[in-house]
Amino acid sequence: MFRYVLRRLALSLITLLILIAVIFLLTRVFPSDPARQLAGPFGSQERVDQLNRDLGLQDPMITQFGRLLRDVVTLDFGESYSQPGERVLDLIRPRLANSAKLVLFALILTLPLSIVGGIIAARKKDTLLDRTIVNIGLASSSIPEFVSGVLLQYIIGVKLGWLPAVTNIPDDASLITELRYLLLPALAIVFVYFGYIARITRAGTITALDADYTRTAYMKGLSTRSVVRKHVLRNSLQPTVAVTGTQIGYLFGGLVGLEVVFNYPGLGLLILNAATAPDFPLLQAGVITVAIIFMLCTLGADILIAYMNPRARMNLKESS
Amino acid sequence: MTVTEPAGIADRGDPATAALAVQNLELAYEVRGVPREVLRDVTFQIRPGEAFGLVGESGCGKSTTAYAALRYLPDNAVVQGGAVLANGVDILKMSNSQLREFRSTQASMVYQDPVQAMNPALKIGRQVAECYQILGQSKSEAMASAGDALRRVKIADPVRVLDRYPHQLSGGMLQRVVIAMALTGDPKLLVLDEPTTGLDATVEAEVLDLVRELRSETNAAILLIAHNLGVIRSMCDRVGVMYAGRIVEEGNAQVVFDNPEHPYTKGLLNAIPRQGVRKTDRALFTIPGNLPLIGTPLPTCVYVDRCPLADDVCRTQVPPVVPVGEGHWSRCHHIDRLAQITEPDAQITEYDIGTDNVIQLNGVSKTFRQRGHDVPALVSVDLGFHEGETLGLVGESGSGKSTLAKTLLGIHSPDSGGNITLRGREMKSKATDRIAESTRAISMVFQNPDSALNRMWTVRRILKRTLTKLTDVQGAEADRRVEELAEAMRLSPRHLDMRPRQLSGGLKQRVAIARAFAGSPDVVVCDEPTSALDVSVQAAILNLLANLQNDERTSYLFITHDIGVVRYLADRIAVMYLGRIMEIGSTDVMFSEVNHPYTEALLSAVPSVDGEAENRIPLTGEIPSPANPPSGCVFHTRCHRVIEGLCEVTEPEMQEISPGHRIKCHLTIEQLSVPVEIKESATLATLAD
User: Fold this and answer.
1) Secondary structure percentages of chain A, helix, strand, coil, to 5
2) Which of A248, A312, B17, B538 has the most CB atoms lying inside 10 A of its own CB?
3) Do B131 and A220 touch (CB under 8 A)?
4) Distance from first CA to last CA of chain B, Å, rounded?
5) Torsion sign, CA atoms B517, B518, B519, B520
6) How many CB atoms lie within 10 A of CB B474?
7) Of the given ranges (A61-70, A129-138, A214-223), which has the lowest mean pLDDT?
8) A128-141 vs A175-210: helix axis angle to the nearest 10?
């Protein structure tokens, strides 16, 4: 198991390296001139040349890439272009915390609900209950989170006034207050992911319930409860874990629409603003942050799956 | 349907004291609200300590009966009548907790596929120990009991096996583990559902030996389900023959197999290649028609549509239970006319085998590279076959049979040094490099026609494409040839416009054979072409292959694990072990002269439906990994005739012990003729590593 983690970690680092290279190249193909932008439309050509030299924008690409790698390792991405004087890391840190809070809260609501829903649907396959769960899931996942977000905001936040409609959380808010502010956007995420995760869990559970080893467990004289808990879940939840792992990574950077709707300062909004500015150091750092989180989440999911399924450990050994 | 307590069955004693008494069980599967009958008035009894076998072709309801004995039925199963008594208690009426108690202490089951039957995510120890925890033992007690349980099923190193995951063990070892779990708490009833199907003959023999031994130890009653009549005969006291959900004959296993008293039993037994019958003796008996579809209402004799004796009485009245001997009965109206069912006539045809080799393999080796290691899958194989000849290829899984076939077909390229010639001309090693003539000359029939045929295409299109690809025949001429081909395979014209999924297993295999013959090949490689088929269908396919060969003078490379089949069809037999040919000779001499010790063990492992009791020679341990073959003679680690100091040092040369009969062994004919003594340690299952 330990060797598996090491191997898997090494693979992740290689993936990350390739990702950083792609991000680096993408930011270079933007049709813009950061030095001119910093100098302002009326800045002198000397000023622009000076900035180009200072920022190292005329160094060979490989040197610039090396610098980026060093920045990643030291977690120092320099100063923002669009907000001069601000360290990029200081801009990212609070945004990352905000995104983490929202995503975690949404997951805590979504996962138990959808996993239990999926298992119940699988156990009651082809009954009314099953169809209800599956169809509610399908319907709710087909609405984008920023659309359901707007609806929630209008109905619960504005019309009924039960919860804050925007997330202007006071600085000294307690955890409970904070969660009250976050509940509406989190619910929008629940809507999208409930159906998705419940369906994956349902499919995995149906396969496991039909498996011969489940029959063996019943024949040993175990109760249905024990069969499901000891034999089915360990096998049936593997796809759920895999999907959840990749989706968490997505949620950190991909909730721009929801952040706009609720005016919530998360990572997605930061990256969008950095891209439109454009603010290269911030953009690169933001995207790399999301990439690292993505990598960590899939890594975590894979390790968890390897723990659940001994054959997954073997497979990596064979393929490498 | 009127239910009468048949006299022959009532003789068997008080159902309340039977280990299992199934009484007039009627069971249906509900499909879209319509109940489809699968068990019809099934009645039988197993006394404590008795072994009862159920035989029949797939779909006859034998597995449903087995699962009904532990009340493990799908949600759509409806019991329409009858009872299943275990020691007098009707398990169909038990509460859920009583049923759990019954399964954990009174009855247990061993399944067909041990690899699937074990939870892949949990270690063996935890899964075995769980059985004891259910009985109330603590975790550590249960783990100790689990070790003892594995020792009881003769696993040599239980502690290490407990610490493994299922995928790290072989099928035979896992089946021992499943049996160990089944024995928890000394159940009074042990249900075995095809426990050895899918295992190698040698492993099958070991598992059966084990069950036999445990049976005398525990006095458990056994319900054994198997489609292999030999397995039933060698294991069971009594047997019930099932057809379309009804037991049509029941009696002492030996008596039933030697003197069947029902047309179906008789047909089933005659369809099996047995008693050393060869294709030159006679065609195999086939049962015309197909099994009735599940749920078809069958108010009369269930076998009426396929029975050669059927008349109006059979179509209008359910046959009564007719006692035909001591505890032996049959459900047939016309037992007096059974003698009218005769075996197929003796064949007068001599099979015409040429003298020139069509295909010749010269020193062909194939080495795979796996994780930086060389894995020799074939080691300098020399093999040739003549025109119109069938060469049977036998050996355990992993012996290199399929690699040899794939190398011949050009799917694998042999290592440099060896070559394959077609009528004296060397062929390119890769199929894609071969000239059209070589591609046409060799074709293949696969084990599983389902995955070998394009599901989206009609039979006509499948055959026409092969024909136009491999030969110059095009257009209307090709259409005509396709129809001829279908006719030669006894496919009717309407089958040509069907898709594979609309055809039965036997018809699909006929299509696959038609495709293989489309290019008038010189050699057809048949990889277990009948092992997925029921015996009556197998007989028809074997007859077809034999006839085609006679008409077309095609050569076959016939890969199989079924000794009866290979003996029937093959002119010569080659035995492989770890990528080497250990013995080769004509079928006659293989079964009359002395054999290589490996062949000797293989042959002794086959349970025979003819009941010729032979001294079984167990193969010690598991087949070694080809990546790390034993020194000297590769078979010395498992050989019962090993000469220490010689066999593990020097690899023996092929020696010719009679014209055309060669073995790769150090021993002389005299030494090989001495009967062997079996050591107790040879029956232990050891880990291969």
Assistant:
1) 80, 0, 20
2) B538
3) yes
4) 59
5) positive
6) 12
7) A61-70
8) 130
- Domain holding B604, by residue range, is 595-678
Question: pLDDT tens, A157-201?
Answer: 888 878 887 777 777 778 888 888 889 999 999 999 999 999 999
DSSP reduced 3-state for A248: helix
Q: How many Å lie between the alpha carbon of A206 and the closest alpha carbon of chain B?
A: 14
Calculated CA dihedral for residues B227, B230, B232, B238, nearest 10 degrees: 120
Output the pLDDT for position A320. Answer: 33
Calculate the CA dihedral of residues A220, B213, B211, B127 and round it to 10 degrees.
30
Query: Does residue B165 belong to any structural domain of this protein?
Result: no
Residue B77's CB is within 10 A of a number of other CB atoms, namely 18
The pLDDT of residue B282:
85
Q: Which helix (H) or strand (E) holds B3?
A: none
Residues in chain B where the model's pLDDT stays below 70: 1-11, 299, 346-350, 612-614, 678-683, 688-689
**Residues of A in Cβ contact (< 8 Å) with B104:** 220-221
Are B569 and B392 within 8 A, CB to CB? yes
| Closest residue of chain A to B96, computed from CA coordinates | A223
Which residue type, as a one-letter code, is found at position A124? K
Least confident segment among A17-31, A131-145, B194-208, B579-593: A17-31
The answer to whether residue B406 is domain-embedded is no
Tell me, what's the pLDDT at A318?
43
Give which of B392, B455, B450, B407 is closest to B583, Cα–Cα. B392
B95 lies in some domain: yes
What CA–CA distances, in Å, run from B501 to B446, B462, B467, B496, B511?
A: 17, 13, 22, 13, 12
Percent of chain A with pLDDT over 90: 36
Does the CB of B72 have a partner CB in chain A at under 8 Å? yes
pLDDT for the residue A75: 81
Query: Under 8 Å CB-to-CB from B645, ≥6 apart: which residues?
Result: none
Domain count within chain B? 2
As a whole number of angstroms, the distance between CA A300 and CA B246 comes to 55
Supply the CATH classification number for the domain A92-319.
1.10.3720.10
Q: Are B64 and B78 in contact (CB under 8 A)?
A: no
Using DSSP's 3-state secondary structure scheme, residue B28 falls into strand
Is residue B21, in this structure, part of any structural domain at all?
Answer: yes
pLDDT value at residue A171: 76
Number of helices (H), then strands (E), in chain B: 24, 24
Sequential DSSP letters for B473-534? --HHHHHHHHHHHHHHTT--GGGGGS-GGGS-HHHHHHHHHHHHHTT--SEEEEESTTTTS-
Among B108, B122, B165, beta carbon nearest to A219 = B108
pLDDT at A194: 92
Q: Reduce the DSSP state of residue B196 to 3 states and report it.
A: coil
Q: What CATH number is given to the structural domain containing B311?
A: 3.40.50.300
**Angle at which helices A88-123 and A280-308 cross, to 10°:** 30
Residue of B418, B444, B469 whose CA lies nearest to B523: B444
The distance of A318 to chain B (nearest Cα, Å) reads 7
Judge whether B223 is closer than 8 Å to chain A, CB to CB: no
In chain B, whose CA is at the least distance from the CA of A231? B119
A78: alpha, beta or left? (left if phi > 0; alpha if psi -120 to 50): left
ipTM of predicted complex: 0.84
- C-alpha span between A61 and A57 (Å, rounded): 9
Nearest CA in chain A to B113: A212
Say if residue A56's pLDDT is above 70.
yes
Q: pTM here?
A: 0.86
Rg (CA), chain A: 24
pLDDT at B190: 95
User: How many Cβ pairs within 8 Å bridge chains A and B?
Assistant: 68
